């Protein structure tokens, strides 16, 4: 194990808020993003360019991006689930497009009316469109470990999918545990298998803490060589398929875990804890992250 740093992609403004029932005003989203920047985050998922009738939480995607301060060294990521979404995203100032592949047919059908293999073609198209527009693009393999409709995901197919999308040479490929069912044992094994087929393309990990395995999964991914991890301040968000579930792995707890091992993240822990408290106030409830409640150690 080396002490090489980890890049945390802060996803609370998108994955966090998208899975909250309350719809926050654009100004509050901007305040969250600006606080994240002040904490030291260099890559932030700021919006999803989806149909606002399906995801009203993201209806102000263009307005959010329009109001962001640019040229501050921060990479803003906008999600696009299809070519229409990519066209919208590419008309804004986001630096990077996030495309999504569904590893299971059930999830791909329910979300986009297509098969898993078709979703890979769409994601590859989005990468090409983004590159043609001079922007970077990455691909996330969702439901890589389990699907709410199909059950456990076929890992051989995930590896095959990864090889297919590596063909468009995205900035990185992520494995996402969309519904929070993965355990650290399979995380290490799947990341190692995928790594073997995607050449030099970096891997990113995306976990939900639905069953309290999120942080252990992040550790397992690190052990498999992953150095880019998604997390959400406060552990914001939920899971549309698991009522009352907690959201993404809490950024605060991930930063704590890594920092105690001397692994650099570039995040100011005091500012991050303050932001966690601020976010709890905004959401009107205690959020799942535990570091803001327990405090730093050593103090
Ligand atoms: Zn997610």
Radius of gyration (Å): 18 Å
Question: Which fold name fills CATH's third level, the topology?
Answer: TIM Barrel
What is the name of the CATH architecture? Alpha-Beta Barrel
CATH superfamily: Aldolase class I
What is the N-to-C succession of helices and strands? EHHEHEHEHHEEEHEHEHEHHH
Read across the widest sheet, the strand sequence of neighbours is: 1-2-3-4-5-8-9-10
Count of spatially separate domains = 1
Total helical segments: 12
Main CATH class: Alpha Beta
What oligomeric state best describes the polypeptide chains here? Answer: single chain
- Low-confidence residue ranges: none
Instruction: Tell me how many strands there are.
Output: 10
Q: Tell me the span between the first and last alpha carbons.
A: 26 Å
What is the general shape? Answer: globular
**Biggest beta-sheet profile:** 8 strands, parallel, barrel
The percent range for strand residues is 15-25%
Q: What structural category arises from helix and sheet content?
A: alpha/beta
